[in-house]
Write a structure and sequence with these properties.
There is one protein chain. Helix 5 crosses helix 6 (101-107). The protein has 237 residues and is mostly helical. The protein has twelve helices and no strands.
């Protein structure tokens, strides 16, 4: 019987299999990368009802983080400021700024605005999945600064999510916490530099045998007896 198909078709199933495998592999790799928190949330920068500049309030004015986020070092969760926190200053400062009109509408009874007394609906920037437990106070009270997770937020005109906050990213810190530890009195100092700190305390550092930022991190880890857990139950309660 005559062969109705040319010889090259003998390799057609193999070619289809190879092409199909390449496409499937590409889809898997693309999904693995683009569906991670790094690409889904890192860089997230929502608009807020009032354009609040951390650069002005923290870097220029010098407000401590805890003035607005008042119980982040004593609670498992951090809080956003209520209307009264903003009004304490802005009933006297920048009183005519149009950017602050939403605040005046809610706090000035003479305006008789329908939103009077209602909270400002700030848009949350950093949010972990509901199945993840993170305790702010546990980290802050052992020398982990806001900057380790949130980046140089003091220089941000509009806050954005600097890091992915993924499981792998958290584990990197848990495996080498000494890279992020700082003295407790420096946790909220967003201009902290380990080299400057060592230079400013020569006697104490010499006594401890600390010469480099790496030495300081290891001494703090030893002092606080930090043994960061890496088990699933650490964060998934």
């Amino acid at each position: 019987m005559a062969n109705f198909f040319p010889r090259w078709t003998n390799f057609l199933p193999l070619k289809i299999a190879i092409c199909g495998g390449a496409v499937a592999g590409g889809v898997v790799l693309a999904f693995t990368y683009y569906a991670t928190p790094k690409t889904l949330t890192a860089g997230y920068q929502p608009s807020q009802p009032i354009p609040f500049s951390h650069k002005i309030h923290v870097d220029q004015v010098g407000l401590d983080c805890r003035y607005c986020h008042s119980f982040e070092d004593v609670s498992g969760t951090s809080n956003v400021p209520g209307n009264n926190t903003c009004w304490n200053c802005h009933q006297h400062v920048q009183k005519e700024s149009p950017k602050l009109q939403p605040l005046r509408d809610r706090m000035d009874p003479t305006l008789k605005h329908p939103d009077f007394g209602k909270p400002i609906q700030w848009v949350r920037v950093h949010k972990l999945p509901d199945y993840v437990y993170f305790n702010h106070s546990a980290h802050l009270n052992r020398g982990i600064s806001c900057q380790s997770c949130h980046g140089e937020v003091d220089r941000m005109e509009t806050v954005f999510q600097k890091n992915s906050l993924s499981m792998g990213w958290c584990l990197e810190c848990h495996r080498e916490p000494e890279k992020h530890l700082r003295p407790l009195e420096e946790v909220f100092n967003l201009k902290y530099d380990a080299k400057d700190y060592i230079a400013a305390h020569p006697g104490e550092m010499m006594k401890l045998g600390v010469k480099t930022p790496e030495d300081l991190g290891m001494k703090l880890k030893e002092h606080w007896k930090i043994h960061s857990k890496e088990t699933c139950a650490t964060c998934h309660h």
